[in-house]
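2024-03-11 09:14:02 DEBUG pipeline.ingest accepted 1 chain
2024-03-11 09:14:02 DEBUG pipeline.ingest length=661
2024-03-11 09:14:03 DEBUG pipeline.predict start
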Amino acid sequence: MVSGKKIAAAVSVTALVAGLSYMAYFDYKRRNDRQFRRKLRRDRKKVEKTATKISSPSIAEISDLAMELLGKVASEPMPQSPEDKEQFFMAQVSKGEALSSSGASAYPEAACCFFQALKVYPNPVELVMIYQKTTPDAVFKLVMAMMAQEVKQKQARYFDVFPPRDSNVRIKDKSKMEGKTKYKHSEDGVKSDVVVPNRALFATKGVEQGEVVYEEESVVSALLPCAQNGKFCYHCLRAVAEEKAETESTEDVEEKVEETESTESTEDVEKKVEETEPVEETKKSSATFECEKCHDAVYCSEKCRQDAYDAYHQFLCPSSNKTAREFAELTQKSHELAPILIAKFFGTLVDREKKKEIARALGVSDKGDTDEYTTWEHLEIMRYLELIPTASDATALHKLGEVMSASVPGLNEFVTGERYTMLKGKLDYNAFTVHTEGVVPKETPETHVSDTMRDDHTKSAVGISMYLISSHIAHDCDPNVQIVFPDGTDKAAVKALKSIAADEELRISYVDPQQSVEERQKQLQALYRIKCACKKCEADLEAAKAEAAAAPAAEDKAETVEEKSAEAVKTIDPNDEGTPSFAAVAASPTPVSAVEDKAEVVEEPEASPLKTIDPSDEGTPSFAAVAASPSPVEAKAEEAEKPEAETDEEEYETEESSDNE
């Protein structure tokens, strides 16, 4: 019987002979076959070229290579069950790590493995942060480039599936509809090939005035500092009801006293009356729920408390650790809600993706095609303001990383200063003010925040929130829809202010539309860099121009009247020889007729409009000036100083001589 050692030796010899034979064949082909040598050179150049691209690639080369790799992995089947996904993930990560250690030539294949593992991981954002810390920089750049190319491909079909069809709206590019293409310009004014879309939200069906077009939940929200008084839910912003403690009425107390008078002494009865004195006491509703650690965060339900804890409060609670307390104090001193909102956003982002993956695994997801997009991908579609990073932003970002590093690994590496500023710009451009029916304390210098919010000032502001669909609604000073909050929470409803036809654009007002056109345009330019040219602004500007043009004519007319009045008013000296006697004054025309004669000189229109007198106006006479003006007798005497004075003198002399006679 042949032993195992002999079999192993035979196999080894056979393998060695086969290896030597292949080496001999390879050497023979390399020496004698010209086509074989050319193929070897092409393969070698391809590997060297790939290695060169990986070691020192340009952005265009990385993008091209990423597109090529993305096409390669697109045809590979993906596992469906959770068990298969877990095995696939482990296999791809192990293979990618092995290829990464093989050198630059293996980086593209390693990137494909890591990218495939990313596709089946429950929390892609978290895995990206891990990749950034553990993989070679070139491999990580390739993975990110593949993700970017995939995002571009997904964006191409994004507006076909979002917003959902049951929302009755569609996002369209107005530039394409109007045949106008807008290009992005660099800082030095050079036009680039990047097309800037002008997206807006359009109705897909007719809506009558007063009807709700759609409703949507917020992505992230926060209470304003002035509303953080324990009367509003820290998660959904609902007003937390208060109830009065049960009290006994005076009649009930007296009845109890009468019942005990027969059995108890007078002293005992008086003591019981004092103990049962009716006292009204306000306490928190039994429906109020607090954070068990800080007791500052108040919630309207157990669900809100649990949802808030899972998403963000577990690491933002000031009583959880020293870092969280310092972060809360920093945001309070900065008078900004942006750091809190960004922290909540990342916590909510990770929590939503986890819950989304669980729903997929259980087969209970009902969002259809829109479910394939992460909250981050939705956010990338939104407009934003290009802000200049500040020192306070850097400090807030550093503290944010310290607070969330334990719960969200790799956040410091992922959220760079540039990404933080971009997120802040998106919040400034797209955030809405949440209104409430409840009473909110007035804002003070201590509770003031500098964050920009779309606010039409219809009701009291309780918080700030951001929405995926409503962020695409454009501004108009004469809006046809309005954001309302019928449930008293941060859940928004878009209500029609006018009848809206199908394919008509939805428009809201970012500022108070009741302000003057100058104030509206000033705020829009300062806050949103919008130069509004809506019909209302055009009409208001035309009216302002007409009013400004009419103002000088009115001023000239007023000056003419004042000059004529000044010429007519003169002081009469009784010692003047030409001053008429009392008899002559009595014989002169009555004050009424004098006024009528004066009216002929001024020639005012019969039905001149009334003017409002402003006490602060410099042209308005003061009370002292009116008191110092000539009396009616002096006004009558002024007629004596007209050119007809000589005739009056003759009449005066004639009357005087007749009196002497």
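2024-03-11 09:14:41 DEBUG pipeline.report The radius of gyration is 42 Å.
2024-03-11 09:14:41 DEBUG pipeline.predict end
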